[in-house]
Amino acid sequence: MNEINTYQNRKVVWMNYRELLEDKMPESDWICLMTTSASKPDSDKFDRFTREAIKSGILEFKGHGKFSELLHDWFDETMVLMETVENHSEIEVMTTWHNDESLAETFWQCFFATCLPETTDYEKLKIVCTDLDGIDRKEELANYLNQFKQGWLPKT
Fold first, then answer.
1. pTM of this structure
2. Taking a C-beta distance cutoff of 8 angstroms, is the pair 130, 36 a contact?
């Protein structure tokens, strides 16, 4: 887990997808921004990610890029399966997809357009960012944070 910076009292960290699959997720209160565009993700690995993310207290999942709607659908399908077939208690994870928005616009939403539960511990809230294609976007995200601090707003 590589800390990028903090903005709006939310710590932003970068994690490689393989780290997330190796159970190195935050322990609670986190938002995941996952981007992908080069190749269709592996559904079994993503199902494993979803289940581990739910166990570790993910609050919101934002898919970005070419396969973002697919990721959103897979996440939702796993939640429904867990609740209806596996008798898991109600899962309160908001999921969104962002096919036609820039990474900057979707990242901005992690700070200003979230649907977090009342039980959120804002002192511990983290935004975990990853790229399924293996692209290291730490520097790009750090640049976006600097722009946000200068008042950048997404296109309306």
1. 0.95
2. no
**DSSP notation for 15-82:** --HHHHHTT---SSSEEEEEEE-SSPPPHHHHHHHHHHHHHTTEEEEEEEETTHHHHHHHHHHHHHHH
pLDDT tens-digit profile, the chain (156 residues): 899 999 999 999 999 999 889 878 999 999 999 999 998 999 999 999 999 999 999 999 999 999 999 999 999 999 999 999 999 999 999 999 999 999 999 999 999 988 899 899 999 999 999 999 999 999 999 999 999 999 999 986
| Measured CA angle at 132 (ends 5, 36), to 5 deg | 95
Helix (H, G, I), strand (E, B) or coil at 108: helix
Q: For the structural domain made of 2-149, what CATH number should be given?
A: 3.90.190
C-alpha 48/C-alpha 70 separation (Å) is 15
